[in-house]
Amino acid sequence: MSLRRRDCLLALAVAVCLPAARAATPPELAGLLRGVTLLGHKRFTVFGFAVYDASLWVEPGFDAQDYPRHGFALDLLYQRDFSNAAITRRSIDEMERLAPLTDERRQTWKQWLQTAFPDVRKGDRITGIHQPGKGAVFLTNGRQTGRIDDAEFAQRFFGIWLSRNTSEPALRQALLGSTS
Questions:
Q1: Residue range 52-103, pLDDT digits in tens
Q2: Does this model's pTM top 0.90?
Q3: Rounded to an integer, what distance in angstroms lies between the CA atom of residue 157 and that of residue 113?
């Protein structure tokens, strides 16, 4: 078999097997959410550079129009390195883009995010778990790194990806599939 043909077959095998492997429910979600299934996923890129692969795991009965009332997990598999400061700054900017924040709230939420997220390296995963009416739990590579008990924070944070007013509507559509 020629080297080129072997490489093409290997690429095809990876393309076929990768989505199936990625669809296995992350084990760390088992104790935090009930019966989750993968609703959608997409690679997020900026100017052609891969930033992260996003996957949305939802509990039965999930309604995209009323996402704050449902349990779900947003999993981000990073494709490059980012500092905690960069992740925090971008998160706050996107949350404020959805609706203005008071100076006090901006500072409080910034502090919470700084403790919930580490610096990330290519291949790291941050998973945010939405707990309706309570807040959010954050896992980094399967280990809890933060818990924020504030339902408004959680709604606004996950709104970065799920709100109709997101700055990335194509990513939202891919995460929500045909449910939006």
A1: 999 999 999 999 999 999 999 999 999 999 999 999 999 999 999 999 999 9
A2: no
A3: 10
* Under 8 Å between Cβ of 135 and 148: yes
Residue 98: Cβ within 10 Å count: 17
- Structural tokens at position 31: 């104790």
Cα distances from 129 to residues 10, 28, 76, 153, in angstroms, run: 35, 10, 11, 12
What tokens appear for 65 in the block? 């129009």
Domains of the chain: 25-179 (3.50.70.10)
**CB neighbour list of residue 126: distance below 8 Å, 6 or more residues apart:** 75, 76, 78, 117, 120, 138, 139, 140
pLDDT band at 4 (very low <50, low <70, confident <90, very high): very low
CA distance 142 to 164: 29
Q: Which two tokens stand for residue 167?
A: 């700055």
